[in-house]
Amino acid sequence: MADDLYSVLGVVRTAKAEDIAKAYRKLAKKLHPDLNPGDKAAEDKFKQVTAAYDILGDTEKRRRYDLGEIDASGQERPQQRYYREYAGSEDGARYRSTAGYEDLGGFSDLFGDLFGRGAGARAGGQRFAMRGQDAQYRLEIDFLEAVNGAKKRITLPDGGTLDVTIPAGVEEGQVMRLKGKGMPGLGGAEAGDALVEILVKPHPVFNREGDDIVVEVPITFDEAVLGGKVEVPTITGNVFATVPPGTNTGKTLRLKGRGIKRKNGKLGDELVKLTVVMPDRIDEDLKAFAEEWRGKHRYDPRRKHREQA
Asked: pTM value?
């Protein structure tokens, strides 16, 4: 992994989240192994770009990386613990180490002093009980995990784990509530809930519009003229779609039922946006054909624009 993740994505350290996502999407489309079969260098670079976005695309991980709490591979760096005191510094805050204060005790001592140490007893012998607080987490998942569903595991600050079932079709920013998986209650009261906010990584090929999947597919000059069958990626695997003769860039094919599963059980569609791509090199045969065809069949595709301007 490179020392500077911002350099890997080609952005400045002050870049906005949307600019980081845009840079990742551009590089991922260019370097994706499916588009560069057999190119080991592109594959390695794709892995670097993806690993960099895994940290910089996550608000909390990016904050910790910028502060030096984790390195470019996401590993913890040894450091002291700090608390924030609002006074003094230019941004109204300064940091002080808590080293040397560990013997002051924790929350168990605090609650023991407040509510008595006899099993949470209160004055008059009544038992104090309070529902546990809700715990909030963020979980970043891959695009296809959000679309098709998945099972994920969150590692908690205390080293414990929390298993989360991601339903198919979950959206960016959606919050899942896991009953009783939050902080424990006091005095025998029920535990709080775990609130898990879902963050979805962008995909280098697929985009989402509601319950529809959108994908751009390039076609050749001859496929545009003559039509034919072209292979199209979908969220469940590649399929073949029919390109009609005389297809222009921008034409959209609709693949019914190839989108995201809706709450009512029905499926969205996949929208395939076609782009006509010329060959990298125009050989003499194609050049001669185009010149002869233009001489006999010249047409003006921009006439309507001029008339409507």
From this structure: 0.55
